[in-house]
Design goal:
about 180 residues, alpha+beta, two-stranded antiparallel sheet, 5 helices, globular, disordered C terminus
Length: about 180
Amino acid sequence: MKLVPKNLIKTENSLSSIKTERSILAQSNHPFIVKLHYAFQNSKFFAFVMDYVPGGSLANHMKSQPGGRLKESVARYYVAQVLLALENLHNSLKAVYRDLKPENILIDIDGNLKLSDFGLAKSRVISWQEKLSDRLWNTRVSCTRNSEKGSLQQVSRLLESRMSSLRTAGWTRSVSHA
């Protein structure tokens, strides 16, 4: 579980980072990215309940190796997993992971890596969804009696297509109520 104290969130930018991290984790479904199971908040904390990854961080694992280095074969294996995770983030979620370091790479019970800590990540998906949501709720439709443009059928079709777009974008899917 990751707890972020609310008293440390002093700017709108910090709050945006929390929202971005939650959104990326909620939408991600990849074996080399930590999975978010629940997200919630109380008066003091934002909380993310994620996979339990018992192997610790790659940084600690490297420190325990002779000379603080991994064998080349192990390093290749890990690099391949990190690249697959980054590719998934970039191609599927349109996200950029900007905090790649051994401390943010966890090792699971099977020896596979999982990226964690998306607080510095940037995602175009969120801003696109927010814009789509704004367009849906801020659309003004004229409903005059004899106007085809403003008929109730047109309004219904417009809302139906916009809601369908939101569902397709995953906007209506939520991990939990935050």
